[in-house]
Model the fold of this input.
Amino acid sequence: MTIARPFRAVRYDTSRVALSNVIVPPYDVIAADERETYYTRDDHNAIRFELTRKASDEADADYSEMGETLAQWRSEGVLLRDDEPGYYVMRQRFEAPGGGVLERIGFFAELGLEDYSTRVVRPHERTLAGPKADRLKVLRASRANLSSVFLLYEDREQKLAAILARALETSLIAEAGDDAGVEYALARLTDPDDVETVQSFMGDSPTVIADGHHRYETALAYRDESRANATSPNPNAPYEATLAYFANAYAPGSLLLPIHRVVRKEACAAPPTDEAWAAALPGWQYKSVAFSETDSIATLLETHLEPLAGTPAFAADDAQGTLRVFSREAKPDDDLVVRVLENEVLASVFGLDTEAIRNGAVSFPKSAARAADEVRVGDGCVALYINALSPDDVFDTTAEGEVMPQKSTFFYPKVPTGMVFRDHRP
Done:
Protein backbone atom coordinates (compact mmCIF):
# COMPACT_ATOMS: atom_id res chain seq x y z
CA MET A 1 0.00 0.00 0.00
CA THR A 2 2.66 2.53 1.05
CA ILE A 3 5.43 3.15 -1.47
CA ALA A 4 8.56 3.72 0.64
CA ARG A 5 11.58 3.49 -1.65
CA PRO A 6 15.30 3.73 -0.95
CA PHE A 7 16.79 6.88 -2.48
CA ARG A 8 20.04 8.76 -3.02
CA ALA A 9 20.05 11.39 -0.30
CA VAL A 10 21.81 14.71 -0.42
CA ARG A 11 23.42 15.24 2.98
CA TYR A 12 26.06 17.23 4.78
CA ASP A 13 29.70 16.23 4.41
CA THR A 14 30.46 15.82 8.11
CA SER A 15 34.18 16.33 7.43
CA ARG A 16 33.26 19.89 6.45
CA VAL A 17 30.56 20.77 9.00
CA ALA A 18 29.55 19.57 12.45
CA LEU A 19 26.06 18.10 12.07
CA SER A 20 25.07 19.35 15.53
CA ASN A 21 25.61 22.92 14.34
CA VAL A 22 23.47 22.69 11.21
CA ILE A 23 20.35 20.67 12.04
CA VAL A 24 17.25 22.61 13.13
CA PRO A 25 13.73 21.83 14.33
CA PRO A 26 10.91 21.85 11.75
CA TYR A 27 9.98 25.34 10.54
CA ASP A 28 6.68 25.45 12.42
CA VAL A 29 8.24 25.06 15.88
CA ILE A 30 11.01 27.62 15.45
CA ALA A 31 10.04 30.80 17.28
CA ALA A 32 10.60 34.14 15.56
CA ASP A 33 13.27 35.11 18.10
CA GLU A 34 15.14 31.82 17.55
CA ARG A 35 15.83 32.37 13.85
CA GLU A 36 18.88 34.56 14.39
CA THR A 37 20.40 31.99 16.74
CA TYR A 38 20.36 29.34 14.03
CA TYR A 39 21.46 31.75 11.29
CA THR A 40 24.55 32.75 13.25
CA ARG A 41 25.39 29.31 14.65
CA ASP A 42 26.92 28.13 11.36
CA ASP A 43 27.09 29.60 7.87
CA HIS A 44 25.68 26.31 6.56
CA ASN A 45 22.87 25.91 9.08
CA ALA A 46 19.74 24.32 7.57
CA ILE A 47 17.59 27.22 8.81
CA ARG A 48 18.42 28.66 5.38
CA PHE A 49 16.24 25.93 3.86
CA GLU A 50 13.32 26.61 6.19
CA LEU A 51 12.76 30.26 7.05
CA THR A 52 13.78 33.79 6.21
CA ARG A 53 16.16 35.46 8.62
CA LYS A 54 13.45 37.87 9.78
CA ALA A 55 9.85 36.83 10.22
CA SER A 56 8.76 40.17 8.74
CA ASP A 57 10.37 39.20 5.41
CA GLU A 58 8.33 36.03 5.05
CA ALA A 59 5.21 37.42 3.38
CA ASP A 60 7.12 38.86 0.41
CA ALA A 61 9.74 36.12 0.10
CA ASP A 62 9.94 34.07 -3.10
CA TYR A 63 12.60 31.81 -1.50
CA SER A 64 14.75 31.84 -4.65
CA GLU A 65 17.83 31.97 -2.43
CA MET A 66 16.99 28.50 -1.09
CA GLY A 67 17.41 26.88 -4.47
CA GLU A 68 20.55 28.92 -5.12
CA THR A 69 22.01 27.96 -1.75
CA LEU A 70 21.26 24.28 -2.30
CA ALA A 71 23.00 24.34 -5.68
CA GLN A 72 25.96 26.30 -4.30
CA TRP A 73 26.52 24.01 -1.34
CA ARG A 74 26.36 20.96 -3.60
CA SER A 75 28.85 22.56 -5.99
CA GLU A 76 31.19 23.42 -3.11
CA GLY A 77 30.97 19.92 -1.65
CA VAL A 78 29.36 21.00 1.60
CA LEU A 79 26.48 18.79 0.55
CA LEU A 80 27.14 15.43 -1.10
CA ARG A 81 24.84 13.01 -2.87
CA ASP A 82 25.24 9.31 -2.17
CA ASP A 83 26.11 7.18 -5.20
CA GLU A 84 23.68 4.38 -4.44
CA PRO A 85 20.13 4.43 -3.07
CA GLY A 86 19.38 3.30 0.45
CA TYR A 87 17.23 3.87 3.46
CA TYR A 88 18.57 6.26 6.11
CA VAL A 89 18.03 4.94 9.61
CA MET A 90 17.87 7.54 12.36
CA ARG A 91 17.99 6.89 16.08
CA GLN A 92 16.86 9.59 18.50
CA ARG A 93 17.91 9.06 22.11
CA PHE A 94 16.17 11.39 24.54
CA GLU A 95 14.95 11.90 28.07
CA ALA A 96 11.27 11.13 28.45
CA PRO A 97 9.10 13.82 30.09
CA GLY A 98 8.54 11.55 33.07
CA GLY A 99 12.22 10.68 33.38
CA GLY A 100 14.33 7.88 31.97
CA VAL A 101 16.03 7.60 28.59
CA LEU A 102 14.18 6.34 25.53
CA GLU A 103 15.13 5.64 21.93
CA ARG A 104 13.08 5.99 18.78
CA ILE A 105 14.48 4.34 15.68
CA GLY A 106 12.95 5.07 12.29
CA PHE A 107 14.09 5.62 8.74
CA PHE A 108 13.98 8.14 5.92
CA ALA A 109 12.68 7.01 2.55
CA GLU A 110 11.20 8.33 -0.66
CA LEU A 111 7.43 8.28 -0.22
CA GLY A 112 5.24 7.81 -3.27
CA LEU A 113 2.53 10.45 -3.10
CA GLU A 114 -1.06 9.28 -2.75
CA ASP A 115 -4.25 11.30 -2.55
CA TYR A 116 -5.97 10.98 0.81
CA SER A 117 -8.94 9.36 -0.91
CA THR A 118 -6.91 6.17 -1.47
CA ARG A 119 -6.59 5.74 2.34
CA VAL A 120 -2.93 4.77 1.94
CA VAL A 121 -1.43 7.89 3.51
CA ARG A 122 -3.91 9.10 6.09
CA PRO A 123 -4.13 12.53 7.74
CA HIS A 124 -5.10 12.88 11.37
CA GLU A 125 -5.78 16.62 11.39
CA ARG A 126 -6.94 19.42 9.11
CA THR A 127 -4.59 21.99 7.63
CA LEU A 128 -4.57 25.74 7.02
CA ALA A 129 -4.20 27.48 3.66
CA GLY A 130 -1.51 29.96 4.72
CA PRO A 131 1.28 27.54 5.66
CA LYS A 132 0.63 25.44 2.54
CA ALA A 133 0.96 28.46 0.26
CA ASP A 134 4.22 29.40 1.97
CA ARG A 135 5.68 25.88 1.75
CA LEU A 136 4.66 25.63 -1.90
CA LYS A 137 6.81 28.69 -2.63
CA VAL A 138 9.73 26.91 -0.96
CA LEU A 139 9.23 23.74 -3.00
CA ARG A 140 8.92 25.62 -6.29
CA ALA A 141 12.05 27.65 -5.60
CA SER A 142 14.22 24.80 -4.36
CA ARG A 143 12.90 21.87 -6.40
CA ALA A 144 13.84 19.75 -3.44
CA ASN A 145 12.27 18.23 -0.34
CA LEU A 146 14.26 20.02 2.33
CA SER A 147 12.29 18.90 5.38
CA SER A 148 10.55 15.63 6.01
CA VAL A 149 7.01 14.49 6.51
CA PHE A 150 6.79 12.28 9.63
CA LEU A 151 4.71 9.12 9.22
CA LEU A 152 3.67 6.37 11.61
CA TYR A 153 3.37 2.75 10.59
CA GLU A 154 1.95 -0.20 12.49
CA ASP A 155 4.42 -2.91 13.50
CA ARG A 156 3.13 -4.43 16.71
CA GLU A 157 5.42 -7.45 16.36
CA GLN A 158 8.54 -5.32 15.80
CA LYS A 159 9.33 -7.07 12.52
CA LEU A 160 11.58 -4.27 11.26
CA ALA A 161 13.27 -3.47 14.59
CA ALA A 162 16.25 -5.82 14.21
CA ILE A 163 16.96 -4.68 10.65
CA LEU A 164 17.03 -1.01 11.64
CA ALA A 165 19.13 -1.68 14.73
CA ARG A 166 21.63 -3.69 12.69
CA ALA A 167 22.13 -0.82 10.27
CA LEU A 168 23.00 1.47 13.17
CA GLU A 169 25.55 -1.06 14.42
CA THR A 170 27.23 -1.67 11.07
CA SER A 171 26.70 1.37 8.83
CA LEU A 172 26.80 4.49 11.00
CA ILE A 173 27.53 7.65 8.98
CA ALA A 174 26.85 10.56 11.34
CA GLU A 175 26.04 11.57 14.91
CA ALA A 176 24.69 14.81 16.33
CA GLY A 177 22.92 16.47 19.24
CA ASP A 178 20.44 19.33 19.50
CA ASP A 179 19.53 22.08 21.92
CA ALA A 180 16.81 19.95 23.52
CA GLY A 181 19.33 17.28 24.51
CA VAL A 182 18.26 14.76 21.87
CA GLU A 183 21.13 12.61 20.58
CA TYR A 184 21.05 11.47 16.95
CA ALA A 185 22.68 8.65 15.04
CA LEU A 186 22.29 8.23 11.27
CA ALA A 187 23.08 5.09 9.27
CA ARG A 188 22.62 3.88 5.70
CA LEU A 189 20.67 0.68 5.10
CA THR A 190 21.68 -0.83 1.77
CA ASP A 191 21.76 -4.61 2.26
CA PRO A 192 19.57 -5.94 -0.60
CA ASP A 193 17.70 -8.46 1.54
CA ASP A 194 17.01 -5.93 4.28
CA VAL A 195 15.93 -3.32 1.76
CA GLU A 196 13.52 -5.80 0.20
CA THR A 197 12.10 -6.72 3.63
CA VAL A 198 11.49 -3.09 4.56
CA GLN A 199 10.01 -2.18 1.18
CA SER A 200 7.73 -5.24 1.17
CA PHE A 201 6.55 -4.64 4.75
CA MET A 202 5.72 -1.02 4.04
CA GLY A 203 3.97 -2.03 0.83
CA ASP A 204 1.44 -3.95 2.90
CA SER A 205 0.87 -1.17 5.43
CA PRO A 206 -1.09 2.08 5.48
CA THR A 207 0.58 5.02 7.20
CA VAL A 208 -0.67 7.97 9.23
CA ILE A 209 0.84 11.44 9.10
CA ALA A 210 2.12 12.24 12.56
CA ASP A 211 3.66 15.59 11.66
CA GLY A 212 3.98 17.52 8.43
CA HIS A 213 0.42 17.62 7.06
CA HIS A 214 1.15 20.97 5.41
CA ARG A 215 4.34 19.62 3.83
CA TYR A 216 2.54 16.55 2.50
CA GLU A 217 -0.35 18.51 1.03
CA THR A 218 2.14 20.97 -0.45
CA ALA A 219 3.88 18.05 -2.17
CA LEU A 220 0.52 16.95 -3.57
CA ALA A 221 -0.16 20.44 -4.92
CA TYR A 222 3.31 20.62 -6.48
CA ARG A 223 2.79 17.19 -8.03
CA ASP A 224 -0.52 18.25 -9.55
CA GLU A 225 0.82 21.46 -11.05
CA SER A 226 3.92 19.64 -12.34
CA ARG A 227 1.72 17.02 -13.99
CA ALA A 228 -0.29 19.80 -15.64
CA ASN A 229 2.89 21.31 -17.07
CA ALA A 230 4.38 18.00 -18.22
CA THR A 231 4.20 16.95 -21.88
CA SER A 232 3.40 13.34 -20.94
CA PRO A 233 2.74 11.31 -17.77
CA ASN A 234 5.85 10.16 -15.91
CA PRO A 235 5.17 8.07 -12.79
CA ASN A 236 8.89 8.12 -11.98
CA ALA A 237 9.21 11.90 -12.02
CA PRO A 238 10.73 13.36 -8.82
CA TYR A 239 7.57 15.34 -8.12
CA GLU A 240 5.59 12.09 -7.77
CA ALA A 241 7.25 11.48 -4.39
CA THR A 242 8.49 13.32 -1.32
CA LEU A 243 10.85 12.86 1.60
CA ALA A 244 9.40 11.03 4.61
CA TYR A 245 10.55 9.69 7.95
CA PHE A 246 8.82 6.52 9.13
CA ALA A 247 8.53 5.35 12.74
CA ASN A 248 6.70 2.42 14.29
CA ALA A 249 3.85 3.81 16.39
CA TYR A 250 4.03 0.75 18.66
CA ALA A 251 7.75 0.91 19.44
CA PRO A 252 8.71 1.84 23.02
CA GLY A 253 10.32 5.14 22.04
CA SER A 254 7.43 6.46 19.95
CA LEU A 255 5.83 8.90 22.35
CA LEU A 256 2.38 10.34 21.84
CA LEU A 257 2.16 13.12 24.40
CA PRO A 258 -0.96 15.07 25.30
CA ILE A 259 -1.53 18.64 24.21
CA HIS A 260 -3.37 20.41 26.99
CA ARG A 261 -5.87 23.25 26.70
CA VAL A 262 -5.91 26.64 28.39
CA VAL A 263 -9.03 28.80 28.20
CA ARG A 264 -7.70 32.32 27.70
CA LYS A 265 -8.60 35.20 30.01
CA GLU A 266 -10.50 37.08 27.32
CA ALA A 267 -12.79 34.07 26.77
CA CYS A 268 -13.54 33.51 30.43
CA ALA A 269 -14.85 36.22 32.77
CA ALA A 270 -14.02 34.16 35.86
CA PRO A 271 -13.13 30.55 36.67
CA PRO A 272 -16.19 28.32 37.17
CA THR A 273 -17.27 27.64 40.74
CA ASP A 274 -17.96 24.13 42.02
CA GLU A 275 -21.64 24.77 41.46
CA ALA A 276 -21.05 25.91 37.87
CA TRP A 277 -18.96 22.84 37.09
CA ALA A 278 -21.62 20.52 38.51
CA ALA A 279 -24.45 22.26 36.64
CA ALA A 280 -22.63 22.13 33.30
CA LEU A 281 -21.40 18.56 33.61
CA PRO A 282 -24.21 16.35 34.95
CA GLY A 283 -23.14 12.76 35.26
CA TRP A 284 -19.49 13.60 35.80
CA GLN A 285 -17.72 12.84 39.07
CA TYR A 286 -14.89 14.91 40.41
CA LYS A 287 -12.50 15.07 43.28
CA SER A 288 -10.49 17.98 44.59
CA VAL A 289 -6.74 17.70 45.07
CA ALA A 290 -4.78 20.33 46.96
CA PHE A 291 -2.33 22.08 44.63
CA SER A 292 0.31 24.28 46.24
CA GLU A 293 2.94 26.33 44.45
CA THR A 294 5.57 23.77 45.45
CA ASP A 295 3.72 20.84 43.91
CA SER A 296 4.72 19.41 40.56
CA ILE A 297 1.76 19.39 38.19
CA ALA A 298 3.31 16.47 36.32
CA THR A 299 3.42 14.42 39.54
CA LEU A 300 -0.17 15.30 40.45
CA LEU A 301 -1.41 14.29 37.00
CA GLU A 302 0.56 11.06 37.10
CA THR A 303 -1.08 10.19 40.41
CA HIS A 304 -4.64 11.37 39.83
CA LEU A 305 -5.31 11.65 36.08
CA GLU A 306 -3.19 9.02 34.34
CA PRO A 307 -4.99 6.10 36.09
CA LEU A 308 -8.15 7.29 34.28
CA ALA A 309 -6.57 6.89 30.81
CA GLY A 310 -8.94 5.31 28.31
CA THR A 311 -12.02 6.90 29.86
CA PRO A 312 -13.47 10.41 29.55
CA ALA A 313 -11.40 12.33 32.08
CA PHE A 314 -9.61 15.65 32.52
CA ALA A 315 -8.23 17.87 35.26
CA ALA A 316 -8.98 21.58 35.69
CA ASP A 317 -6.63 24.11 37.27
CA ASP A 318 -7.60 27.73 37.92
CA ALA A 319 -4.51 28.58 40.01
CA GLN A 320 -6.59 28.92 43.18
CA GLY A 321 -5.02 26.03 45.07
CA THR A 322 -7.20 23.15 43.89
CA LEU A 323 -6.83 20.68 41.04
CA ARG A 324 -10.24 19.33 40.09
CA VAL A 325 -10.13 15.88 38.50
CA PHE A 326 -13.24 15.01 36.47
CA SER A 327 -14.30 11.66 35.04
CA ARG A 328 -17.39 9.79 33.98
CA GLU A 329 -18.28 6.33 32.82
CA ALA A 330 -17.62 5.59 29.19
CA LYS A 331 -20.64 5.46 26.90
CA PRO A 332 -21.07 3.13 23.90
CA ASP A 333 -20.86 6.06 21.49
CA ASP A 334 -17.99 7.82 23.26
CA ASP A 335 -15.33 9.34 21.07
CA LEU A 336 -11.77 10.52 21.68
CA VAL A 337 -11.20 12.38 24.93
CA VAL A 338 -10.10 15.46 22.93
CA ARG A 339 -13.47 15.50 21.18
CA VAL A 340 -15.34 14.93 24.45
CA LEU A 341 -13.44 17.84 25.96
CA GLU A 342 -14.39 20.07 23.04
CA ASN A 343 -18.04 19.02 22.81
CA GLU A 344 -18.92 18.67 26.48
CA VAL A 345 -16.50 20.77 28.48
CA LEU A 346 -15.40 23.72 26.37
CA ALA A 347 -18.91 24.03 24.96
CA SER A 348 -21.01 23.45 28.09
CA VAL A 349 -18.81 24.99 30.75
CA PHE A 350 -17.26 27.89 28.84
CA GLY A 351 -19.69 28.41 25.96
CA LEU A 352 -16.96 28.00 23.33
CA ASP A 353 -17.80 26.51 19.95
CA THR A 354 -15.36 25.22 17.35
CA GLU A 355 -15.11 28.61 15.66
CA ALA A 356 -14.20 30.37 18.90
CA ILE A 357 -11.54 27.77 19.63
CA ARG A 358 -10.02 28.19 16.17
CA ASN A 359 -10.07 31.96 16.60
CA GLY A 360 -7.86 31.85 19.66
CA ALA A 361 -10.13 31.45 22.69
CA VAL A 362 -8.05 28.43 23.68
CA SER A 363 -4.27 27.91 23.66
CA PHE A 364 -2.59 24.52 23.33
CA PRO A 365 0.50 24.14 25.53
CA LYS A 366 2.64 21.08 24.84
CA SER A 367 3.47 20.50 28.50
CA ALA A 368 1.49 20.54 31.71
CA ALA A 369 4.04 22.86 33.30
CA ARG A 370 3.58 25.42 30.54
CA ALA A 371 -0.20 25.20 30.85
CA ALA A 372 0.04 25.77 34.59
CA ASP A 373 2.31 28.77 34.03
CA GLU A 374 -0.13 30.36 31.57
CA VAL A 375 -2.82 30.40 34.23
CA ARG A 376 -0.50 31.67 36.93
CA VAL A 377 0.93 34.56 34.94
CA GLY A 378 -2.52 35.73 33.98
CA ASP A 379 -2.70 34.72 30.32
CA GLY A 380 -5.14 31.91 31.00
CA CYS A 381 -8.27 31.51 33.06
CA VAL A 382 -8.38 27.72 33.45
CA ALA A 383 -5.98 25.00 32.34
CA LEU A 384 -7.53 21.71 31.22
CA TYR A 385 -5.15 18.75 31.38
CA ILE A 386 -5.80 15.52 29.49
CA ASN A 387 -4.21 12.10 29.07
CA ALA A 388 -2.37 11.20 25.90
CA LEU A 389 -4.13 9.37 23.11
CA SER A 390 -2.93 5.89 22.17
CA PRO A 391 -1.61 4.59 18.83
CA ASP A 392 -4.87 2.65 18.53
CA ASP A 393 -6.81 5.92 18.81
CA VAL A 394 -4.82 7.36 15.91
CA PHE A 395 -5.04 4.35 13.62
CA ASP A 396 -8.70 3.58 14.40
CA THR A 397 -9.79 7.17 13.79
CA THR A 398 -7.91 7.62 10.54
CA ALA A 399 -8.96 4.18 9.24
CA GLU A 400 -12.54 5.42 9.36
CA GLY A 401 -11.65 8.44 7.25
CA GLU A 402 -11.99 10.84 10.16
CA VAL A 403 -9.66 13.49 11.49
CA MET A 404 -9.14 14.57 15.06
CA PRO A 405 -9.77 17.99 16.58
CA GLN A 406 -6.87 20.37 16.21
CA LYS A 407 -3.90 19.82 18.48
CA SER A 408 -4.92 16.33 19.56
CA THR A 409 -1.47 14.75 19.71
CA PHE A 410 2.13 15.78 20.17
CA PHE A 411 4.53 13.25 18.69
CA TYR A 412 7.86 13.53 20.45
CA PRO A 413 10.62 14.10 19.59
CA LYS A 414 10.28 16.12 16.38
CA VAL A 415 12.14 15.11 13.21
CA PRO A 416 14.86 17.70 12.53
CA THR A 417 15.66 19.33 9.23
CA GLY A 418 19.20 18.75 8.01
CA MET A 419 19.78 15.02 8.46
CA VAL A 420 19.03 14.25 4.80
CA PHE A 421 17.56 16.12 1.83
CA ARG A 422 15.91 14.91 -1.37
CA ASP A 423 16.89 16.98 -4.40
CA HIS A 424 14.68 16.65 -7.48
CA ARG A 425 17.60 17.60 -9.71
CA PRO A 426 20.39 15.15 -10.70
About this structure: The chain has twelve helices and 21 strands. Residues 62 and 330 are 51 Å apart (CA to CA).
